[in-house]
TrEMBL record:
Keywords: 2Fe-2S, Iron, Iron-sulfur, Metal-binding, Nitrate assimilation, Oxidoreductase. Residues 22-117 form the Rieske domain. It comes from Streptomyces griseoincarnatus. It holds the Pfam family Rieske_2. InterPro entries: NirD, Rieske-like_NirD, Rieske_2Fe-2S, Rieske_2Fe-2S_sf. PANTHER family: NITRITE REDUCTASE (NADH) SMALL SUBUNIT, PTHR40562. This is Nitrite reductase small subunit NirD.
């Protein structure tokens, strides 16, 4: 989803959880390249990101290699055209669209459908 800055006022970022949408924060709270951690109703956390083109991504905030809830503080980038977040601890990169670890094909994080409404 790509949105012009002037159209983002009042929009809310929402994640699909099971059969319902969960409001995370205002779209204006997201800064391209920086993550926001969101506490979900079941106690888990999601890491929510936007890029410079206005696309939204959400993955589990828990780093599967360390168990720490830190992916929202990771660095974002692209590798071969794929958007990723790198864990701030051990630097493994996770594809923001699929959750697949780019450094270990046997590991992945949960991804969430995300929208601004």
């Amino acid at each position: 989803m790509t949105l012009a800055l002037e159209t983002t006022t009042g929009l809310t970022v929402r994640l699909r959880l099971a059969d319902d949408w969960f409001e995370v924060c205002g779209l204006d709270r997201l800064i391209p390249g920086r993550g926001v951690a969101a506490l979900l109703p079941d106690g888990r956390q999601a890491a929510v990101f936007t890029d410079r083109a206005g696309r939204l991504y959400a993955v589990d905030n828990r780093d599967p290699f360390t168990g720490a809830a830190v992916l929202s503080r990771g660095l974002t980038g692209t590798h071969r055209g794929r958007p990723f977040v790198a864990s701030p601890l051990l630097k493994q990169r996770f594809d923001l669209e699929t959750g697949r670890c780019l450094d270990d094909d046997t590991v992945r994080v949960t991804t969430y459908e995300v929208e601004a409404a």
